[in-house]
Amino acid sequence: MMWEVRPVNAYQVMLVSFFVFFPACTGVPLTTQSSATQIAPEMAATFTLGKVAEEGNGELSDVPMVLIPAGEFPMGSMQGSANAKRAEGPQRMVYLDAYDMDVYEVTTKYYAKFLEVTHMPAPLAWSQVDLAKHGDRPVVGVTWDEASAYCKWVGKRLPTEAEWEKAARGTDGRSYPWGNEVPTSDRATLTKHWEGYDTPTPVGSLEGGKSPYGLYDMAGNVMEWVSDWYDQRYYDTAPAKNPKGPETGKAGVVRGGGWGFLPTDARSARRIYPSRDTQCRNIGFRCAKDAVEQLEIEEN
Q1: Residues 6+ apart with CB under 8 A from 220
Q2: For residue 149, how many other CB atoms are within 10 A of its CB?
Q3: Three-state secondary structure of 63-132
Q4: Angle between helices 108-118 and 49-56 in degrees, nearest 10
Q5: Sheet with 99-102: strands ordered across
């Protein structure tokens, strides 16, 4: 068999490896939209993020959130630290205003309600594995646009990369939500794809894996979409206060590792960058929102 060698860039290499080693994911060209997420013509006139939010805002107010206080934290990885990638540096101190973050990943129970009200198509993964029957498990197979639309529907938004990382690791620079110890099965759901599993575990199952702020599954279970576009060198020039990522880009960012991924991919500083149109049974999300009142008291 003859192989034709063509020049590729680093982003293309990442996409190939992402889908070869994790076949539970599907990718689409960056300039097109997946047929699984297209909106029917008769719905196009009424389906906008604003309309969705208007129809559903407040219906899921029972979802618990936790306040992440204003203050600084060390974002990224120090040069030379174990398993660190170039895109995780340089590590620097970042100040964030106070915000609220979902305690749990968004579950199929709540996402199904969103689909019922908005008539959005179900995630592709639901046709592969009947995840709709597992209401306590995180929804998977959603694109960045679908995750963003859900968060807007409940009056929230996707967290920024910085917000996600602070909520996961706190302010002491730890590698994982619980500390620097490598993940164990009582702390994170990882590498399950190789053990014959085809779904994540129920959210909030692992007490030992909680973050310093009490958030569950910030390492393992599913990777989580954040709002930022990806830029490998963004940390070189990013603002030190409330960074929100580049204005444009070719890829999104997911954080936290997934049930089919390796422990090193669950480090709080790890950045993985699939296309925003990616649909993957390892990818879900949780939502955040600005704090109702910006507290004057900062973390000690």
Answers
A1: 183, 187, 188, 189, 190, 206, 209, 256, 257, 258, 259, 261, 266
A2: 21
A3: CCEEEECCEEEEECCCCCCCCCCHHHCCCEEEEECCEEEECCCCEHHHHHHHHHHHCCCCCCHHHHCCHH
A4: 110
A5: 65-68, 99-102, 288-290
Which architecture characterizes domain 10-290 according to CATH? Answer: Alpha-Beta Complex (3.90)
pLDDT in tens, 192-242: 654 455 678 899 999 999 999 999 999 999 999 999 999 999 999 999 999
Q: Mean pLDDT of all residues in the chain?
A: 80
Please answer whether residues 64 and 103 qualify as being in contact, where contact means their C-beta atoms are separated by less than 8 angstroms: yes
Q: Which residues contact 295 (CB under 8 A, 6 or more apart)?
A: 67, 69, 70, 98
Judged by DSSP in three states, 42 sits in: helix
Nearest-angstrom CA–CA distance, 49 and 135: 24
Give how far Cα 71 sits from Cα of 51, 89, 166, 262, 268, Å.
34, 20, 10, 31, 18
pTM of the model: 0.81
From CA 246, how far away is CA 232, in angstroms rounded? 10
Q: Within 10 A of 145 (CB to CB), how many other CB atoms are there?
A: 16
Contact 85, 77 (CB under 8 A): yes
Q: In sequence order, what are the beta bridge partners of 73?
A: 94
What is the Cα–Cα distance from 109 to 112, expressed in whole angstroms? 5
Query: From start to end of the chain, where are the E strands?
Result: 25-26, 65-68, 71-75, 92-96, 99-102, 223-225, 254-255, 279-280, 283-284, 288-290
Provide the token pair at 83.
């398993």
Q: What are phi and psi of 25, to 5 degrees?
A: -110, 150
Q: Which residue has the tokens 């910030």?
A: 218
For 274, the 3-state DSSP assignment is coil
Our measurement of the distance from residue 223's CA atom to the centroid of its chain's CA atoms, rounded to an integer in Å, reads: 5
What is the rounded distance in angstroms from the CA atom of residue 19 to the CA atom of residue 17? 6
Q: Which of 92, 52, 47, 55 is nearest to 72 (CA)?
A: 92
Domain ranges of the chain: 10-290
